[in-house]
């Protein structure tokens, strides 16, 4: 074996040596990153929290629980959903684009009912959005998550802009069977995956979403939630000041009344600012 190695050209031996060295360096770098992440997690757990912050978070959580109780008591959500299925055919459906936003109060703990609805809509992260069809069944659920989302009726231009810049899908690798996120910019992928439903290009998907066709649910769930940009990015002093000013200008007042209507915003302007 030693003779075979010595008989190789010097260049191949150097390549092998460099490959081994790089592999060891990568392993060491990965180990250091894991240790650094573990150290930061421990520091976060041991971080000092003021008593005023704990009291404020507790009060905010109690108010949010009270809001949910009022909604459930006033609208009787479970009964309303079952009754809504009977009148859903007479209710004019409406297209909405819902965007998850940071909580209106810092440190708030989202109740389990609202968390389940957010998970059902796949809005698990801030600044992600999905298209939904507003029906009597969906309306009471949107009221549950009203403090954590903004919604509105998008225009055709906004829908097309979202598809062109933010549309993505999950693709499974045939060799490794790993799922990776891929940008949707190829009509062949649409025809391959949704050709049985009559879609051959991205423009067909846009039309299906706008028209809220028969395959609206299949199309929207095939797409990943649209990831938008943060309104202000950065961690420096200027960025912190801009974030405070933005939060002050866009402060939302959340009512705990059970009969509060669903508030819609100019979603086109919101998308334009964060797309």
Which terms summarize this structure?
275 residues; alpha+beta; Ribosomal Protein L30, Chain: A; 4-stranded antiparallel β-sheet; two-stranded antiparallel ribbon; 12 helices; 55% helix; 11% strand
Task: Describe the overall structure.
It is a single chain. With 275 residues, the chain is an alpha+beta fold. It has a domain of 102 residues: Ribosomal Protein L30, Chain: A, CATH 3.30.1390.20. 55% of the residues lie in helices and 11% in strands. The protein is built from 12 helices and 6 strands. The strands form 2 sheets. The chain has a 4-stranded antiparallel sheet with strand order 3-1-2-6. Strand 4 and strand 5 form a beta hairpin. Helix 7 crosses helix 9. The longest helix has 36 residues. The chain is globular, with a radius of gyration of 25 Å. This is Ribosome biogenesis protein RLP7. One of its GO terms (molecular function) is rRNA primary transcript binding. Its main location: nucleus.
Write the layout of secondary structure elements.
Elements: H1 2-7, H2 10-45, H3 51-75, H4 77-87, E1 94-100, H5 112-120, E2 128-134, H6 139-144, E3 149-152, H7 156-166, E4 168-172, E5 179-183, H8 187-194, H9 202-211, H10 216-222, E6 226-227, H11 237-249, H12 267-274
Antiparallel strand pairs: 1-2, 1-3, 2-6, 4-5
Helix pairs in contact: 3-4, 7-9
